[in-house]
Amino acid sequence: MSCSYEETINKLVKFRDSKNWNEYHSLINLSRALGIESSEVEKIFLWKSKDEDLSNEDKENLKMELADVLTYAYYMCNKLDIDPNELVLKKNQINQHRSWNFSKK
């Protein structure tokens, strides 16, 4: 199932509005929710040392937690009136001109 950003955000906004949650969806509250959901992603990796340590159940849980993170990121983009795809491409363009030094010790 593939949807455009517009279709996805319209469904999310319709759901949010059906629950009367818009008053709680300030940027600061959405930021906090995004942080909490991001920590749920991290929790899946607790006590694991490599990707191969993830079970199939872990991978399914990871997908659902990523969906939560993306949902809050989409709501924030909606508040900022920016398409997240455009934002990611803009940041990628900036990163093309940056350099990082990764050293193994």
UniProtKB/TrEMBL annotation:
Kindly give the Pfam families that the UniProt entry links to this protein: MazG-like
Single GO term (MF) = nucleoside triphosphate diphosphatase activity
Any GO BP annotation: nucleoside triphosphate catabolic process
Record SUPFAM superfamilies: all-alpha NTP pyrophosphatases
Please list which residues make up the signal peptide: none
Q: What is this protein called?
A: Nucleotide pyrophosphohydrolase
Q: To which species is this protein native? A: Companilactobacillus tucceti DSM 20183
